[in-house]
Every structure is written in C-alpha cells, then in structure tokens.
Design a protein that fits this description.
There is one protein chain. By secondary structure, this protein is of the alpha/beta class. The protein has helices at 15-28, 50-58, 76-83, 90-101, 126-133, 147-160, 179-192, 209-219, and strands spanning 3-8, 33-41, 63-70, 106-110, 137-141, 165-173, 196-201. It has a seven-stranded parallel β-sheet, sandwiched between helices. Helix 1 (15-28) runs parallel beside helix 2 (50-58), helix 4 packs across helix 5 (126-133) and helix 6 packs parallel to helix 7.
Length: 231
C-alpha cells in the first residue's frame, strides 16, 4: 500500500500518534516514508503541527508535508473560510500524495477530525481524496464505551463510497483498561468489518522519541509493520 489514509472516528482520537507509530515501524524496516497533512488547523504560522510531531517521534528520516494551515481550531472548510484562505481540494491532496509516492515506499495521509469532516464548502472530505487515490483507509478509534457505534458508522460510510477500510487501531489504550475497553478489543473488528491492527498505549506521545521508536512495532499488527499479536 504505497498510500495509506489515516482517519478517525473523531477529533483528539490519536491519529497523529498512530501515524507516527506506523511511520516509525516502516522506517525501522528500512522503508522510506512520507507523511502528508492536507489541512492543519488551530496552529499559527511557525508553530509545530502534526507533521512536526510525527517527525519528532518517528525520526527526521520521515519526509513531512503540509498543504495548508489555518489558525483557528475548526473544521478545515470553516477555518479556511474564516481566515479568508482557499480551501484544500481533494485533487490537491491526491496530486501531492501521488508525487510523494513516486519518491517513497509509504505515504501516510493524515486527515483532520473524522472521515466526513468537510474540507471545502462543496462538502469534499478525506474520503473523496481516498477515492481519487484508490487508497485504503486506516481508522483510528477510541478504546472505551461508545466506540463501537462510531466505528461502525465510519466503516459504513467507507463501504457506501466503495472505499476499503484497511483496519482499525485504538489510538490510546489505557494501561489498566476497564471492562468496556477490554471487550472492545474483540468487538471492534465486528463493528468495523475489518481487522484490529493495533492498540497504541495511552501516553505514547509523551515518550522520548527513542522509547517511542523502540516500542512502536509492539503496538501494531504485522500488516502495519509491527509484531503485535492478537488480543
């Protein structure tokens, strides 16, 4: 999969840390990796954004690219409109990802918020870019109660658009999961109609980069370059 879209069931779900973990595992396996953030919101010019965080955790060997950044922490189309700036179009995302794919073994495209968050006033979403690229979508999900519903809704939206759900990854798995979180590890693949491909430990983003890279493969299934076993 030269291009993998990384979306989620909502915002603050762990997409950036999961993207960094996949990137770190790929780099450790000797692959060249690029991360593309089509729309960075809520970050002022010069401030570190999600691409910076992925490269900090996964290593500077990872190529990073932003297409646009908007200062207010809003949906990309709203943030662009309020800033008086041009929105990001699916065609721009696809073009940038395709170019990166000619130069890298793996391109990770990290969305903003959930799958159907609007990028422009016409209603374009990350799903439209995935369709143009014929790229699978990795869905980052919450660990606890309520995640089965949001996971099922996201997966249903992917299927309705003829898109492949590559699998799901829990973005922040508690060290001592409650009953719901433990049961969800079995139930998430059923809700998604796709395999559970990982569970990143809560607080992983606060690890030192060296520790993060050393542990990244343990959070991810072999399909994502890791060595995590089921369960």
């Amino acid at each position: 999969m030269p291009v993998l879209m990384v979306s989620g069931t909502g915002t603050e779900i762990g997409k950036t840390v999961v993207t960094a973990a996949v990137a770190a595992a790929a780099v450790a396996a000797g692959r060249s990796v690029a991360v593309l953030k089509p729309a960075q919101t809520g970050v002022a010019p010069g401030e570190p954004g999600d691409v910076f965080e992925v490269r900090r955790l996964a290593g500077e060997a990872v190529t990073g690219m932003e297409l646009a950044r908007f200062p207010e922490p809003l949906a990309p189309n709203t943030a662009a409109r309020r800033a008086g700036m041009a929105p990001v179009r699916p065609e721009q995302i696809a073009e940038a990802a395709e170019k990166l794919a000619t130069e890298h073994d793996l391109v990770l495209v990290e969305g903003a918020g959930g799958l159907l968050v609007r990028f422009d006033d016409e209603g374009a979403t990350l799903a439209d870019a995935a369709r143009l690229l014929a790229a699978p979508v990795l869905v980052v999900v919450a660990a606890g109660l309520g995640t089965l519903n949001t996971t099922a809704l996201t997966s249903e939206a992917l299927r309705a658009r003829g898109l492949e759900c590559a699998g799901v990854v829990v973005g922040s798995m508690p060290a001592e999961p409650d009953l719901a979180a433990r049961c969800n590890l079995d139930d998430l693949p059923v809700a998604a109609g796709a395999p559970l491909l990982g569970a990143v430990s809560a607080g992983a983003g606060a690890l030192t980069p060296a520790d993060f890279r050393a542990r990244a493969a343990s959070w991810l299934a072999p399909e994502l370059g890791g060595n995590r076993t089921a369960g």
